[in-house]
Amino acid sequence: MRKKLIAANWKMYKTPDETRAFFRDFFPLVVGHERDEIVVCPPYIDLAAALEAARGSNISIGAQNVHWKPEGAFTGEISANMLLSLGITHVIVGHSERRQYFGETDDTVNLRLKAALESGLIPICCVGEVLEEREAGLTDDVLRRQCVRAFHAISSKKAAKLVVAYEPVWAIGTGKTATPELAAEAHAVIRRAAAEIFGEPFASQLRILYGGSVKPENASALMAQEEIDGALVGGASLEAKSFAAIVKY
Ligand code: PGA
Predict the structure, then answer these.
(1) CATH number of the domain that 102 lies in?
(2) What is the value of pTM for the model shown?
(3) What's the number of domains the chain is made of?
(4) Is residue 14 within 8 Å of residue 35, measured between CB atoms?
(5) Are 223 and 231 in contact (CB under 8 A)?
(6) Atom 6 in ligand 1: which residue has the minimum CA distance?
(7) Range of the domain at 116
(8) Cα–Cα nearest to 243, from 3, 13, 49
(9) H-run or E-run covering 180
(10) Going by DSSP bridges, is the β-strand pair 59-63/90-93 parallel, antiparallel, or unpaired?
(11) pLDDT tens readout for residues 163-180
């Protein structure tokens, strides 16, 4: 049995004060919830406030990106060691918005993934096709390619903590959700790719989250799919009540 992981991706939203306010409202709603793992990924400047607020609770805190070098002259970047020194446990890698707007490539995703895994962070590696690729029947090829390149030269032993998120780009922030069946099909493609790269036992343990307009109304149907091991939630994670409703799908 794979324990489900429900992660919030706050993107570029909330100040430290707003972060503290979120946790004040969110805690009572999920206190004692052990069925699923809960992770919240705020912007860098909110990480300290989030860690402070979540201390001793059932909620882990993650970052939204990580650089692959331990330190150096890389203005604006943050390393895995820096995140770990703060108490961060998870990190999102290769989100489609990074790929779309900030020049992220399959190769830089691979570098970030290696750095995260080597440091002991739990990476949530995002893959997903854009609308034109889906319409051209290329979804399976795109997902396979993204996985092969992202996991390049990583051993199954090193990859032990890896989590993957399937995020069809056409469903992110658009209100369009992949149907549970369609998402499950894509997850199966990712799991097959992982089996080829890391072996069958690894693939059967690998958690694959779904992301793209997950809301309280569609969470339970998505989570009912055996292939879907949790969710990466953007817009609907910004509000305590709606994220708690998703966690408790
Ligand atoms: P959304 O974002 O839930 O707002 O569609 C998901 C994501 O980008 O991780």
Answers:
(1) 3.20.20.70
(2) 0.97
(3) 1
(4) no
(5) yes
(6) 234
(7) 5-247
(8) 13
(9) helix 180-198
(10) parallel
(11) 999 999 999 988 888 899
